[in-house]
Task: structure prediction
Amino acid sequence: MGIRTKFNLGLLVVFALAFAAAWVFLDRQFVSTARSEVVQNARIMLSAANAVRQYTVREVVPAVTRGDSNWITPLTVPSYAAQTNFRAIRADHPDYTYKEAALNPTNPTDRALDWEADFINNFRNEPSLNEMIGERATPIGRVLTLARPITIRDEGCLPCHSTPDRAPARMVAVYGSANGFGWRMNETIGAQLVSVPMSLALNNARGNLHSAMAILFATFFGMMLVLNALLHFVIIRPVTRMSRVATAVSLGQSGEGEGEGFEVKGKDEISDLGRAFTRMRRSLDQAVKMLGS
Result:
């Protein structure tokens, strides 16, 4: 096995290990970055939903009720306003969802699914928990869900949700008296849930990974070509010529052919070796001539 083959095999082994390590590291980095982007998008969406809720409380409710504290229509309910506005967003982005799920909602459509109930129960079991992030597999791919607890902090919520006899008659007429009652102060009754598909972000992450690895491979290939060229001109070719000269000298052909035509140029270690070899050859030629005279 020649020097070039050994050199290239060693280089390939080092590159294969480095390539595999870089692939694993960059894959984790790109996926982590993609996940962070998805979480940030979910937080922005949740902030937008909360802005609608706050606008409903500050602007819509006073304008509609005009001092009448009685319940008028679902339009005055912050959660209804936020979810209704979000449905307009879903017209352009159907894979994005926002829901205010509850274990015992007034509106049956807000009842928590099993996986949504898991978030709510975690918030109920850990009151200090302000946010949770989870992922789940769906028919459209992996989906990331950002959840925040809905906790009763305002006494103004209780007249509508404590007992049916205290609730506004119009609300009971619309939703009935079986759901949405029995809420208590400081009780976590539900959760805001924003679900964002991860497929686009993950596909971008994979594309970035493939581009980075292609650049790494191209860099290695170019480096390998340059190193092989240097190996050939700086080491292999001079050593091969010295080998031919040594063979010629050993066969008694030091005065002709390869033995006479060997020249050394440069100032590196191989050049020094070549000059030392040339001096040795000439000294050997002189010694042979002296013995023959």
